[in-house]
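Input sequence (322 aa), recorded before submission:
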Amino acid sequence: MFSYILRRLGQSFIVLLLVMLITFSLPYFEVGGILAPAYAVLGTHANPHTVHLWGVQHGMFRPYFVRFWEYIDQVFIHFNLGHSYKQNLSVWAIISIYVPRTLWLALSSLVLTVLIALPLGIYQASKRNTTVDYVATGTAFVLYGIPAFLLGILMLQFFSFGWPHLPTSPPNGVAPWAMFTDPLGFILPVLTLTLLSIAFLSRFMRSAVLEVLVQDYVRSAIAKGCSRPRMLIHHAFRNALGPIVIILGLYFPGLLGGAVVIEAVFNYSGLGVQVVNAATISDVPTVLGVTLLVAILTLLGNLMADVALGIVNPRIRIQGSR
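Predicted structure, token format:
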């Protein structure tokens, strides 16, 4: 198991270096190149001479690979995601306030999704081609196809402007864990994210369980008198859990992307609002810093999914060692 984790760590590290190379290189291709921030900082004083002096002061003319090595050192040693010349602050100082809020929103939605979608998918598979299955499948298709912002607006229309009346947005300036102390304002954004995720995950769980139910060992267990609940939990669920673990690991970063849209709809001061503001004012370092952070979270989710899959299915790590 230890060698399996080391291999996955090595692969994740290589992917992270490639992502860092891309995010570091993108500013070279914007209008003005790596000197583009100089025009934002100098304003009306920007001219070829002052722009050149600004580039010299900030080391912009040093060799490409020297600057890239310093960028790697900043990220891994100092966890410095860059500097925003527009706001004259480090990128991490700007987004550190908002990251916990978005993470709590996404994690709470993910927990509710797992608690609801997995049993729902198993139940649908056990009731295949019945009215319950058709209704649940049709509802999942509708929720899966509806855009996140539209579902958020509909939730506001039905539950904030109608009855029962719920707050249109969480309180401003609250701590990330305020959803546990003052949960009323978080009901609609969490519920919206959860509904979108349930539609996605329950379909995968249903398909995975149906694929397991046609296996010979399941039929043998039924022929030997295994009860249906025991067959579903001990055989179908456990063997269908492998693909679901991978999907959960890869879906969490996507859930963060959905949270960005939901935050804008419900006026929640999270990472999404900050990214929109940074993009509006052309704060490229902040946008790229958030991109790198999401990439790191994606790799962590993928790594956790690989490790969990190795625990759930030991054959995976044994085959990978050959």
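Checked by second reader. The chain has two domains: 2-93, 99-269.
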